[in-house]
């Protein structure tokens, strides 16, 4: 699963996801892509599950690019622990995704297969998404 090799700080604030994506809203690598329509945190497990679904649907032909990376640690306290005594230890990694962000791109497969693969991948994610293609394709 994806996670940073090292970080400057071990724990991060929760924060909020405001507005639309500031960058990463255009197709840069592939011909087809999966665009986020809602703001949310996507976990490393969800990214990996979507990647597996997309790769399997494409029968390992073509190429898949993952355009998001989980770089925010989410901490959790153990079950049945009293209030106070500080913040919990980092449990998993997430990526903050804003609306408009391209999350996955694929290339080297026909449009109908790309749409099917990205739809299967989108089913693994907790947000609404849209299939996008370069102008003149699909």
Question: What would your notes on this structure say?
Answer:
This protein has 2 helices and 7 strands; from the N terminus they run ββαββββαβ. With 138 residues, the chain is an alpha+beta fold. It has a 4-stranded antiparallel β-sheet, with helices on one face. It has a 3-stranded antiparallel β-sheet with strand order 2-5-4. α1 packs antiparallel against α2. The chain starts with 31 loop residues before the first strand and ends in a 5-residue tail after the last strand.
Report the end-to-end length measured between terminal Cα atoms.
32 Å
Give the beta-strand count.
7
| SSE-based structural type | alpha+beta
Low-confidence stretches: none
Strand content: 25-35%
State the share of residues found in helices, binned by percent.
Answer: 10-25%
Give average pLDDT, whole number. Answer: 96
Please summarize the sheet with the most strands.
4 strands, antiparallel
Helix-strand blueprint:
Layout: E1 32-36, E2 40-43, H1 44-57, E3 63-66, E4 72-76, E5 89-97, E6 102-107, H2 111-122, E7 129-133
Antiparallel strand pairs: 1-6, 1-7, 2-5, 3-6, 4-5
Helix pairs in contact: 1-2
Compact summary:
The chain contains 2 helices and 7 strands, in the order ββαββββαβ. It is an alpha+beta fold. It has a 4-stranded antiparallel beta sheet, covered by helices on one side.
């Amino acid at each position: 699963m994806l996670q940073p090799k090292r970080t400057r700080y071990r724990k991060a604030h929760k924060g909020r996801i405001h507005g639309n994506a500031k960058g990463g809203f255009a197709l840069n690598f592939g011909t087809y892509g999966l665009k986020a329509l809602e703001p949310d945190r996507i976990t490393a497990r969800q990214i990996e599950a979507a990647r597996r679904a997309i790769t399997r649907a494409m029968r390992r032909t073509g190429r898949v690019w993952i355009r998001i990376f989980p770089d925010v640690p989410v901490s959790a306290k153990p079950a049945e622990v009293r209030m106070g005594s500080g913040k919990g230890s980092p449990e998993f990694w997430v990526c903050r995704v804003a609306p408009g962000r391209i999350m996955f791109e694929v290339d080297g497969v026909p449009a109908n297969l790309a749409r099917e693969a990205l739809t299967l991948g989108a089913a693994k994610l907790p947000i609404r998404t849209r299939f996008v293609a370069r102008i003149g394709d699909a």
